[in-house]
Design brief:
This protein is of the alpha/beta class and 248 residues long. It folds into 2 domains: 4-90 and 169-246, 3-Layer(aba) Sandwich (Rossmann fold); 101-167, no CATH class. It has helices at 53-60, 83-86, 106-115, 121-134, 151-165, 181-196, 208-214, 232-237, 240-246, and strands at residues 15-24, 27-37, 42-47, 65-73, 76-77, 91-94, 169-173, 200-204, 217-222, 225-231. Helix 3 (106-115) crosses helix 4 and helix 4 (121-134) packs antiparallel against helix 5 (151-165). It binds adenosine-5'-triphosphate and magnesium ion (MG).
Length: 248
């Protein structure tokens, strides 16, 4: 499907990014990005270094200056809302650099995420339990300093925190970077299961092959514009676009 054909939001969109224009100072980085994510869908956002993937995710989170377009979750436009308020839409964010505060245990990381989630107190405990159900390997490490865990375990904590805040939608930026291939595959499969459980997942991923295997739909960014998009099954059948847009 061409980028232009994607302009109308499909029915049932959880997230709708429409014609977003984002800037760093005077630099006009996103020049009309549009994409959608539905509940239960894993959508991959691909593109070369500097294409604007992180800026897209940061725009959704209110972390960069958006000066045009719309970002809607469940139909409500939230462009211009501060990052703290984005949590009220049930959006969880795994940033590009996994930030573990030194000295905080895994349990404390999860508790802080629950406190920031805007969930009613009674539901905060259950949200932490669900994150542990997704990552049972963290259970024996709950009282360890999260900053001293392995890279793969730290990413589990980062995604776990996002799951606690993100009851509806996860934005995941380069979560497999620096991980051994088998650990990266495990994380990918876990995110697929999370989507199968009903959440929308927007996955920024350098490993395009893996992303294509996992995703339902794919968007390719280049220089702040969606240059290609479509159904992952169709894109897998004819991967010539990869050479064109990703230099693979
Ligand atoms: N804080 C910033 N200030 C100014 N320009 C920035 C800033 N962050 C990113 N840029 C620029 O914006 C453009 C898009 O960057 P972005 O980080 O969104 O790319 P990306 O697709 O995530 O790349 P990568 O694959 O390397 O993570 C690039 O030209 C980059 O140099
Ligand atoms: Mg990036």
């Amino acid at each position: 499907m061409s980028a232009a054909a994607e302009s109308a939001a499909p029915a049932g969109s959880l997230l709708e990014v429409q014609d977003v224009q984002a800037y760093y100072g005077l630099a006009h980085v996103l020049q009309g990005v549009s994409l959608t994510v539905r509940p239960g869908e894993l959508v991959a956002l691909l593109g070369r270094n500097g294409a604007g993937k992180t800026t897209t995710v940061k725009s959704i989170m209110g972390l960069v200056s958006v000066r045009g377009g719309h970002i809607r979750c469940a139909g409500r436009d939230f462009v211009g809302l501060p990052t703290e308020s984005v949590a009220q839409f049930g959006i969880g964010y795994v940033p590009e650099d996994r930030r573990m505060f030194p000295g905080l245990t895994v349990r404390e990381n999860f508790r802080l995420a629950a406190l920031g989630s805007r969930l009613p107190k009674a539901e905060q405990q259950a949200a932490q339990r669900r994150a542990l159900d997704v990552f049972p390997l963290l259970e024996p490490h709950l009282d360890r300093d999260a900053s001293r865990l392995s890279g793969g375990q730290q990413q589990m904590v980062a995604v776990g925190r996002a799951l606690i805040c993100g009851q509806k939608l996860l934005l995941v930026d380069e979560v497999t970077q620096g991980l051994a291939p088998n650990i990266a595959s495990d994380m990918g499969r876990t995110l697929r299961r999370v989507a199968d459980g009903g959440l929308g997942v927007l996955l920024v991923e350098q490993n395009s092959q893996m992303a294509l295997e996992l995703a339902d739909r794919v968007y390719v960014l280049d220089q702040g514009v969606v240059v290609h998009s479509g159904d992952a099954r169709e894109l897998r059948a004819d991967p010539t676009w990869m050479e064109q847009y990703l230099q693979l």
